[in-house]
Amino acid sequence: MAPAGKVFEFYREGNEWFCKTGLPSDIVISVDDVNFHLHKFPLISKCGKIATLLESLDTRERTSTTALDGFPGGTDTFLVAAKFCYGARVELTPRNIVMVYCAADYLEMTDEYGEGNLLSKSESFFHRNILRNWKDCILALQSCEPVVSRADKLQIISKCSNALSMMVCTDPSLFGWPMMMYGSLQSPGGSILWNGINTGARIRSSESDWWFEDISYLSVGLFERLIRTMEARGIRPENLAGAIMYYARTYLPGLGRWQGGQSGKTRAVASFSMIPAAVDQTVLVESIEKLLPQKKGKSFCRFLLGLLRVALILGINNTCQESLERRIGMQLELATLDGLLIPNYSDSDTLYNTDCVERIIHYFVSSEPKVTSFSPSSFDLQTSPSPGPLRKVAKLIDEYIAEVACDVNLKPGKIRSLAEAISESSRTLHDGLYRALDIYLKQLNCSWMHTPLSVHTDEIV
Questions:
Q1: SS3 per-residue string spanning 32-46
Q2: How far is CA 362 from the centre of its chain?
Q3: DSSP codes of every residue in 123-141
Q4: How far is CA 184 from CA 5, 167, 177, 180, 203, in A?
Q5: Spatial contact of 165 and 180, defined as CB atoms under 8 Å apart
Q6: What angle separates helix 237-251 from helix 281-291, to the nearest 10 degrees?
Q7: Of 142, 150, 157, the residue nearest 95 (C-alpha)
Q8: What SS3 class is residue 30?
Q9: How far apart are CA 58 and CA 55, in angstroms?
Q10: Residue 341 and residue 414: Cα distance in Å, rounded?
Q11: What's the CA gap between 165 and 275, in Å, rounded?
Q12: Other C-beta atoms within 10 Å of 101: how many?
């Protein structure tokens, strides 16, 4: 070994990495098909795993060769660990801390192999720097995706989720967070200072949704775990629903078509330079449905109907579809006609998915009034059920029948089943139903001019 404190030069030639020390390499370590030509002593003095591996290798060979399968972080992270073993100064950042932390654990770089080893340094940096800063915590959590299992083992995901949840739900005044922009309590960039620490979060005294965009960069799995943690921490259901809806609109572009211009707003909470997660839309819809709280509201109902449309396009599983239909049925009095006009995405000849709407009606009729409402300050949602929900739904269904009645392929039996899905006593007036039937019979008369009209009216009556 060269004298302590000497900085060694690492350089790359093609698919090979070398360390220039003046001594020939006596160990080659392969990571993701890239070979590192290194020296045994610096490695075994810091890495328990490599020391153990070398014990099992044939020491008669001049150069030992071994591969590190499944190394967390790949070649870039191994290079950081190797430099550390040679005494070089390594920079820990919010973007690399998780990978370096996991790599140090993989290589067993514990203090048993030298005080202040990479594992303890990574752990200290993670707790002192990452968990106290909103932006850095988000960056670290996002980087857990490729190494979820090892990050779980080290409790990185749970600690990040708990820290973020605490920052979102804690009363700012309890931790010295400014409620308004108070000069020295605000960083030059406009971020909130928490006991002098830059949290990376902007001051939003009048908004509770400042964090929606930030967490939307997480993968579906990490987002779901964060929301579950926030829920356990007691964050208000309407805020969680808002975050979930924002996330869904981010990764389901078609959802915005049925939201009445309520697509997610563009914010500049923190410039993370983050890349949106790669999302499987089917997995996303199934996860979103499970995360959504059992609540009621006009905007929430519209969102559910849009999500159902997307689910039908994606061919979602029956359990998820049934759950969405049930959720909508429990607040059908808050739905609008355009929301119920769900196109038929199957091979059916009919224009609209009347079977789906009929199931929703049955869920409404059979549901009990157990659903609470959001506060009126969020998503223009209501605090109590509208008067006469049965009458409102009856009127809505009559309008729906009148709209779909123009479909020449709609069978008379379907018109009848839709009309009978709501009890007759629910209608104070039958004008809407008569109008719907009149539209349907007129189109029947035009389409089936050569068939006696009585043949078809018998199926309806």
A1: CCEEEEECHHHHHCC
A2: 31
A3: HHHIIIIITT-HHHHHHHH
A4: 41, 20, 12, 11, 13
A5: no
A6: 170
A7: 142
A8: strand
A9: 8
A10: 15
A11: 22
A12: 28
Q: Which two tokens mark 47?
A: 């890495």
- H or E segment at 10? strand 9-13
Handedness of CA 57, 58, 59, 61 (dihedral sign): negative
How far apart CA 298 and CA 331 sit, in angstroms, is 9
Tokens 């971020």 found at: 191
> Do residues 246 and 264 touch, judged by C-beta distance below 8 A?
yes
Contacts 24+ apart (CB under 8 A), 176-180: 178/203, 179/205, 180/205
How many residues appear in the chain? 461
| Dist. CA 200–CA 141, nearest whole Å | 15
- Cα separation, 455 vs 258, in Å, equals 38
Question: Is the predicted pLDDT of residue 40 greater than 90, yes or no?
Answer: yes
Q: Give residue 177's pLDDT band: very low, low, confident or very high (50, 70, 90).
A: very low
CA distance 327 to 302: 11
Q: Is the dihedral of CA 129, 133, 139, 142 positive or negative?
A: positive
Contact 219, 278 (CB under 8 A): yes
Structure token digits, residue 115:
């005080």
Indicate the angle between helix axes 97-106 and 156-169, nearest 10 degrees: 150
Q: CB-based burial of residue 452 (10 Å sphere; 0-12 exposed, 13-18 middle, 19+ buried)?
A: exposed
The answer to whether residues 123 and 103 touch, using CB atoms and an 8 Å cutoff, is: no
Indicate if the pLDDT at residue 185 is higher than 50: no
Distance between CA atoms of residues 177 and 70, nearest Å? 42
First to last CA, the chain: 97
Q: Is 410 helix (H, G, I), strand (E, B) or coil?
A: coil
Residue whose C-alpha is closest to residue 245's, from 52, 73, 351, 378: 378
Give the 3-state secondary structure of residue 362. helix
The Cα 285–Cα 160 span in angstroms is 24
Please give the mean pLDDT across all residues of the chain.
Answer: 81
Residue 275 exposed, middle or buried by CB count within 10 Å (0-12, 13-18, 19+): exposed
**Token reading at 188:** 């030059």
The candidate with the shortest Cα–Cα distance to 72, out of 26, 118, 28, is 118
Question: Tokens in use for 230?
Answer: 């926030």
Higher pLDDT, 105 or 63: 105
Asked whether the beta carbons of 375 and 346 are under 8 A apart, the reply is no
pLDDT tens-place string over residues 370-393: 445 555 445 555 444 444 888 889
* Residue 279: per-residue pLDDT: 84
Dig out the tokens for 11 from the structure. Answer: 């350089």
